[in-house]
Design a protein that fits this description.
single chain, about 180 residues, mainly alpha, 6 helices, about 0% strand, globular
């Protein structure tokens, strides 16, 4: 296959999978932080993912604050993406399925950390542009709280400025690079 066709296929596979995986990751984290169900952003995410998740939930029920069906779907789609990319380049290595599973787990962890990263980044930017209440700022605040809250206890504000989003972004990026 020509290199251009491979690159176009890689682009399509990556973008389509990654967009839906990001929405699924948002759903997983929104469920975990017990976000407001009636918020329009939460409702949008649920509407996009509900057709598949409701069917999976019959087999894989939720466990405490973990939406098991969403997590399993994320893992399955990550593995499928890796296999499709390998098939596209005729490069299924001899490393075996264990390596694919390890890559899947690593990519899933990076996806979840990336979702936290963008929630914190957009929340910080939005707080400068449009301070106050909005549906998106409420959701971003709820999503970023599990990362920011522990850091806010350890890092006091400097001259009235909360620097914890900066440290959280650096920490998350550092962990994603290590993975």
């Amino acid at each position: 296959m020509p290199a251009t066709l491979n690159e176009a296929g890689l682009f399509l596979i990556t973008i389509l999978f990654d967009l839906y995986l990001f929405v699924l990751s948002a759903r997983l984290l929104l469920f975990w932080v017990k976000a407001d169900y009636f918020n329009p952003i939460t409702h949008f995410v649920i509407r996009l993912t509900d057709p598949i998740i409701t069917k999976l939930r019959r087999v894989l029920p939720n466990h405490r604050n973990l939406e098991t069906s969403t997590l399993i779907l994320i893992l399955f789609l990550e593995l499928s993406k890796l296999l499709l990319i390998s098939l596209l380049f005729d490069a299924i290595p001899d490393i075996g399925m264990t390596a694919f599973v390890f890559l899947t787990l690593t990519n899933t962890l990076k996806l979840i950390l990336g979702t936290f990263f963008y929630a914190i980044l957009f929340h910080a930017i939005l707080s400068w542009i449009q301070p106050g209440y909005s549906p998106i700022s409420q959701i971003l605040s709820q999503l970023s709280a599990p990362i920011l809250r522990p850091l806010q206890r350890a890092i006091p504000p400097v001259a009235g400025f909360d620097l914890t989003p900066l440290f959280a972004l650096i920490l998350l990026q550092f962990i994603m690079i290590l993975l």
